[in-house]
Amino acid sequence: MEIRTLKPEEFDASMELGEYAFQYRVTAEEKEKARKRFRPENTWGIFDEDGRLSAKLGLLNVDIFVNGRKMPMSGVAGVATWPENRRQGLVKQLLTHSLKFMNESGKLVSMLHPFSFAFYRKYGWEMFNDYKKYVIPTEKLPAKQVTEGTVRRDVKDIPVLNRIYEAYASRYNGMMVRSEDRWKHAILGDEDHTAVFYDASGEPQGFLLYKVEKQEMEVHEFVWLTEESRRALWTFICNHDSMIKQAVLAQMPMDDGLTYMLADPRITQEIIPFGMARIVNVAGFIEAYAFQGTGEEQTWTVRLQDPYAPWNEGNWRITVSPEGNAAVSKEDEGEPAQLSCDIQTLTTLMFGYKRPGELVNMGRLAGDPEAAAMLERVIPAGRTFLLDFF
């Protein structure tokens, strides 16, 4: 068996495996478009003795926001194995190899969308985000409100959309930084509409990405920066009331307060787990992280378990300056640590998905109560969200 990145001429083998594993077919035209965008250096494969591709995974290298700062992330996607090669540990080998490669190439975080949460938990990834889905009958839509400014439909100016998006995304931990290429090929579909709200001074302050068909308005992205923009975009949705029977907001953050503002909040809501994350390099992540400054230096030690990324294992001393900047050092293995946890727990803790006290109560974070209380003070109460699927 050989693990390596694919070659340009192995596009067809990669596509064939992907189509089989994920049960889809692309047209000849779609295949040629995919061929032009194929980046073999971002796809790792395991090849048998005859040089046949047995399993593969792709890496999407982008930045994400964590506490308002950008961090380098490697997303795992398109993990596939031929059925005759399954349950032979090939994906385990690919994931282990990929983590080593991510670490060596300076990535601090990895994310993925799992077919099974339990499967990827074994390798250090953990759920870090949920979103809300609303289904709202027309008669229960919010009341229309008059706002200053203008909503313009079908604005496809990527710099305008991206400026709004980045300001919004920086509020949440886990949101991806989008390139122009991603906007063109993964976000703005041919059948999608946009609606951009410009305030009275002409500044873009929010947008919708949506489609209307079969008497339903489905909003894929509802991105707003000000209360005025939120109201204006909701009024735009409500102005479709003669065309639709219901509005579906496919993906809203957990801190969205829509139901509180509805005259009748009894609408259909779902809470859907979406995405897993794991810290790839603990020392690098902690030192890049924006802690909450307390005006005093804070220090604690933690014993970390991470068998699939052994460079993270062991005892760590973390010192946070009065301003919230961290320094990390490895401690003697024989010394007792104040706290202990695995990489999954540390990831959810640092992303703000779970608070230290919650994790202590769940038995996921163990050790000195005073050290756990210190974490409550220095780890910001972050909010997680992720719009992108990859």
Automatic annotation (TrEMBL):
Pfam families: Acetyltransf_17, Acetyltransf_9, SCP2_2
SUPFAM superfamilies in the cross-refs: Acyl-CoA N-acyltransferases (Nat) (SSF55729), SCP-like (SSF55718)
Residue ranges of domain N-acetyltransferase in the record: 1-147
Example GO molecular function: aminoglycoside N-acetyltransferase activity
InterPro entries in alphabetical order: Acetyltransf_17, Acetyltransferase_Eis, Acyl_CoA_acyltransferase, Eis_dom, GNAT_dom, SCP2_sterol-bd_dom_sf
Any GO BP: aminoglycoside antibiotic catabolic process
Record's protein name: Acetyltransferase
Biological classification of the source: Bacteria, Bacillati, Bacillota, Bacilli, Bacillales
